[in-house]
Amino acid sequence: MVMEIRTGPEQLNAFEIAQRQFDEAVEHMTLKAGVVKMLRLPKRELTVNFPVRMDDGSVKMFTGYRVHHSTVRGPTKGGIRYHPAVTLDEVRALAMWMTWKCAVVNIPFGGAKGGVVVDPKGLSMRELENLTRRYATEISILMSPDGDIPAPDVGTNPQVMAWIMDTYSMHKGHSVPAVVTGKPIEIGGSQGRIEATGRGVIFCIEAAMKRLEMHAVYPNGLEGARVAVQGFGNVGSVTAYLAQDAGARVVAISDVRGGIYNPRGLNVRDVIRHREETGSVVNYPGAEGITNGELLTLDCDVLVPAALENQITAENAQYVRAKIIAEGANGPLTPTADAVFADRKILVIPDILCNAGGVTVSYFEWVQGLQYFFWQEAQINEQLRAIMNRSFEEVWQTAQQHKVNMRIGAYIRAVQRVHDATVIRGIYP
Ligand code: NAD
Predict the structure, then answer these.
(1) Which of 94, 153, 160, 316, when mutated, tests ligand 1's pocket best, judged by the most ligand atoms within 8 Å of its CB?
(2) What value does the mean pLDDT take over residues 75-94?
(3) Which ligand 1 atom minimizes the distance to the CA of 330?
(4) How far is ligand 1, taken at its centre, from the CA of residue 348, in Å?
(5) Residues 6+ apart with CB under 8 A from 164
(6) What is the pLDDT of residues 24-47, one digit of tens each?
(7) Residues identified as active-site
(8) Residues 6+ apart with CB under 8 A from 248
(9) Integer angstrom CA distances of residue 37 from 33, 370, 398
(10) Which CATH architecture is the domain 42-176 placed in?
(11) Ligand 1 mean position to 414 CA, how many Å?
(12) Where are the chain's structural domains?
């Protein structure tokens, strides 16, 4: 039976969605009411309005945020987003999801997120550096290697992390590599960090294909499976080329300007080259142009939304034809879409599990930075594989036991860990 699709406008406030997901998980658990009240809300929120000198000599004001959702299990960890649509509620949601993500994979961090309301593509390199250094200074009252450790997210990259690390270090008078992760290798970044999120997505897809017994059709993991990827930044592009390396046919790719489709499979590294030359995947030769909406409903085995929130909604969920949806992005599905997929028996690998490879290798980078001792890439990828496979199995089992979908299964594991840590620490004073 396919559930009735709501036709009215869906609530798309990311923080309300995050709270709703939390509330749904809590219904399946026996928790202390006071702790539940505490975990529904972020611990602290900083809003900063700050000036940046532009290339033409003028001064422009920007608004940024840094939100800590929970510090119970360790220092807070979470990326920094530069995007014109950033809001405080979005940053709150992303911070809360970071708490659960770190707990799902059981690494000793709480959740945070930051954002600046800006289109980074509209800035020169100097303006971007000025903005980053000033924002880093503004949030430095919250940021430190043992307090809050940022990382890249949409619109930021290793160079932005390098400026943050340098700004913080200048204020301290000595280098502090462990204050951010996702840094360039030359200044203490970790081998394998750039690929980590996409690699973790691939590990999850392979585990899901095994669990769904798809080997009857695809006996060698991803080999021959048809994959469509929405978003072609850090997460989407790495997921796409690792899928292709594993033998998958990457039939469609998109970015903010539109998508490309070839049912015989795209040459992903050549698409990356085309994007580097032209700024977008669109007009890639040898592929048909499609819209982002069309990509989501293509006939494929695995769909990887790896762009932004609320891409799959009440409006389009019933037309999705993939068997597995692997959430490379944070929050790409609305609760209504989740319900549609549960009903249609389409497996959703939830963001707080699926894209946790990034924060896991960020954890390795932080540990390496604190110890000034660096690991080989093979060791990092092996430990990442072990953590992702273990976490996938734990979430799968929990979902089976509670007869819930994988998202609620992941929440149950994560919320239990954070709840128990809170109870053991006690409510101060
Ligand atoms: P990015 O800035 O590197 O890339 C974003 C991509 O999405 C770009 O290709 C952009 O063109 C595309 N895009 C933007 N708006 C779009 C739209 N409306 N439709 C289609 N495509 C659109 O960002 P990223 O780091 O790859 O992050 C992507 C998602 O993954 C975000 O939800 C982020 O929070 C999540 N995530 C990132 C990491 C990480 O390590 N970078 C880790 C975990 C989760």
Answers:
(1) 153
(2) 98
(3) 32
(4) 18
(5) 80, 132, 133, 136, 143, 150, 179, 180
(6) 999 999 999 999 999 999 999 999
(7) 113
(8) 222, 223, 224, 225, 226, 227, 302
(9) 6, 34, 23
(10) 3-Layer(aba) Sandwich (3.40)
(11) 24
(12) 1-41+193-355+403-429, 42-176
User: Could you give the C-alpha distances from 232 to 7, 73, 258, 274, in angstroms and in order?
Assistant: 30, 33, 11, 12
d(CA 150, CA 268): 29
Confidence at residue 286, expressed as pLDDT on a 0 to 100 scale: 87
CATH of 1-41+193-355+403-429, one of 3.30.70.1140, 3.40.50.970, 3.90.1170.50, 3.40.50.720: 3.40.50.720
| C-alpha triplet 85, 160, 385: angle, nearest 5° | 90
Which helix or strand (DSSP H or E) is residue 271 part of?
helix 268-278
Contacts of 180 (CB under 8 A, 6+ apart): 149, 150, 151, 161, 164, 165, 168
Which tokens go with 55?
């290339």
Q: How confident is the model at residue 5 (pLDDT cuts 50, 70, 90)?
A: very low
Report the nearest atom of ligand 1 relative to the CA of 182. 40
Q: What is the pLDDT of residues 129-175, one digit of tens each?
A: 999 999 999 999 999 999 999 999 999 999 999 999 999 999 999 99
pLDDT computed for residue 304 by the predictor: 98
Mean pLDDT for all residues in the chain: 96
Residues with CB under 6 Å of ligand 1 are: 152-155, 197, 230-236, 254-256, 292, 306-308, 328-330, 355, 358
Q: Give the C-alpha separation, 54 to 51, whole Å.
A: 9
Mean pLDDT, residues 311-333: 97
Q: What is the residue with the minimal CA distance to atom 4 of ligand 1? A: 233
Candidate of 235, 296, 309 to mutate for ligand 1, largest count of ligand atoms within 8 Å of Cβ: 235
